[in-house]
Amino acid sequence: MDNAAATTTPRYPASAADLFALTKPRVMTLVVFTALCGLLVAPQGIHPILGFTAILCIAVGAGASGVLNMWYEADIDAKMKRTAKRPLPTGRVERQSALHFGVGLSAFSVILLGLATNWLAAAILAFAIFFYAVIYTMWLKPRTAQNIVIGGAAGAFPPLLGWAAVTGDVTVLPILLFGIIFLWTPPHFWALSLFVRTDYAAAGIPMLPVVAGNKETRRQIFLYTLPLVASAVAPWPLGLTGPIYGIASIALNLIFLVLAARVARNTADEPAGMGPEKALFKYSILYLFALFAVLVADRMIIA
């Protein structure tokens, strides 16, 4: 890559605020929440200090993934309005420092998680970091319009990690939780990408709206919503959750399905500011938080 255009002369030393910004803290919020939910619904308890350490390690590992993503994409971020003011494109952090920071956070989070809980959880965390930083960022994202479909697995690991940190194994329920986030990612992200299509086009990233157009993207959003709804409701009929989760899940997924159908029926050339795409994107965030919160409430009430 030509990195000269990506940054200006860096400022030394980088501020703590800029280093923290590299970890993508807004994304980390969802990671921490879903990991905590996976930990809380596990069938056995964990000492509070070890539980806190596990969640901290998962958060740091997610932050490390974000740092490595920004390190690799500094030149791309410089070409997009949405990301041009990040610490690397503006030169507030030097690229080599970002690389060292990301690798250091990765090693710290994986080793500490293994020592504090178990090495299965540590191995899953290491693979999750590798998947996001290498398979998604370096390989999939610049090459295929299906990047976010396969790459969605990177953000689906946290509940699996929370569960594994407690139990040392992986069973059907955490796999379903992984599947829910995996299938949620394409409609969530494509709804946003419709609004920043020109940014991706300018940066040469083959996101679905750039490659296939808005109409096909809207259709794909609806198609991916169907298996999402099925996987989100599945824990109840499979006997893995109680009726509290089951009823709430049906209601949350019906709303998601209606909003996705509205997106699919939209024939406007470009998404409107308060149109169905924006409504689906905003609801999709609330949906995931609510679904996992109800799961925890269901498990605690039943217990």
TrEMBL record:
InterPro entries assigned: Protohaem_IX_farnesylTrfase, UbiA_prenyltransferase, UbiA_prenylTrfase_CS, UbiA_sf
Pathway: Porphyrin-containing compound metabolism; heme O biosynthesis; heme O from protoheme: step 1/1
UniProt xrefs under PROSITE patterns: UBIA
Pfam (any one): UbiA
EC number(s) recorded for this UniProt protein: 2.5.1.141
GO biological processes: heme O biosynthetic process
An annotated Gene Ontology molecular function: protoheme IX farnesyltransferase activity
Membrane-topology descriptor: Multi-pass membrane protein
Subcellular location, record wording: Cell membrane
Catalytic activity entry: heme b + (2E,6E)-farnesyl diphosphate + H2O = Fe(II)-heme o + diphosphate
Top EC class for this record: transferase
This protein's UniProt keywords: Cell membrane, Heme biosynthesis, Membrane, Transferase, Transmembrane, Transmembrane helix
Transmembrane residue ranges: 27-46, 52-72, 93-113, 119-139, 160-184, 221-238, 244-264, 285-302
Main location: membrane
CC annotations in GO: plasma membrane
More about this protein: Carbon 2 of the heme B porphyrin ring is defined according to the Fischer nomenclature.
HAMAP family recorded: CyoE_CtaB
Protein family according to the UniProt entry: Belongs to the UbiA prenyltransferase family. Protoheme IX farnesyltransferase subfamily.
Function, as annotated: Converts heme B (protoheme IX) to heme O by substitution of the vinyl group on carbon 2 of heme B porphyrin ring with a hydroxyethyl farnesyl side group.
Protein name stated in the entry: Protoheme IX farnesyltransferase
Native source species: Sphingomicrobium sediminis
